[in-house]
Sequence to fold (270 residues):
Amino acid sequence: MSTSIKYKGEVIATINDNAERAITTGGNYCEADIIIENTKDGVELSDGIIVKSRDTQGFPTELDIYGELWENALSYKGSYYYETLGWRNVRQINLKTNQSALSARCFNGFANLEFVTGLENVSTVSAYCLCSTRILDINLPSAVSIACEQPFSSNPALQTASFPKISGNLTAGTYALFRNCTALKDVVLGGVGHGLRNNNSANAFQGCTQSGLTICVYCNGTNVNPLMAAIRNGATNATIIVRASEDTDYGNTSYAAGEMIITSSVEVTE
Fold:
């Protein structure tokens, strides 16, 4: 690891692991224009965290994360850990090594977190992984299962969520997928070849009573009514669109995969 000191983009000094210093130029400099950079010479970082930026108090605001996201990776259940200590002002996290899993509570309670990049290869999510954050959009194109306890709940800023490859149970029991995500506007659950089925998922959208919310879910004909009822239990004012995840029958009509089976909306009267 070496450290470079730059002035307006130009290296003016370096120091290596042996504390050997090299001054490359002399002169007087404005402190505000000096940047200190750490680099890992000739080696690709595979595990660890790099702080990309800090606020005026010195708290990190952007992180690059390498390696596996283990359970409670950056947080722990209890305000002492994630509300009062160093990660409390993080706004952006960049996953840098094609992480495939969001482990339990890995970013739970990051109250200012708005953006997470590098989610393209995430195939599994675990309980409370992004609970109580302020992420604006969640797109998990590779996720195949979200049947865990409250992975995205209690986010007052979340607007869009897309999980085109999930299948199986929407959420089981009291696993409140989007509980109290009161800013939600658009949600896509499943896709062609990736059908959902209901398993007592009445709390999936608990507290999402806002108007202007559209939820699109893919399933076969057998699961249309149970899923509609479960989603409507929480999303009382949403427009719910059900599409066929496969060639299927509903009522007395046959539907091709991808075709819309039914739309349910709530008429608002004054």
In short: The radius of gyration is 23 Å.
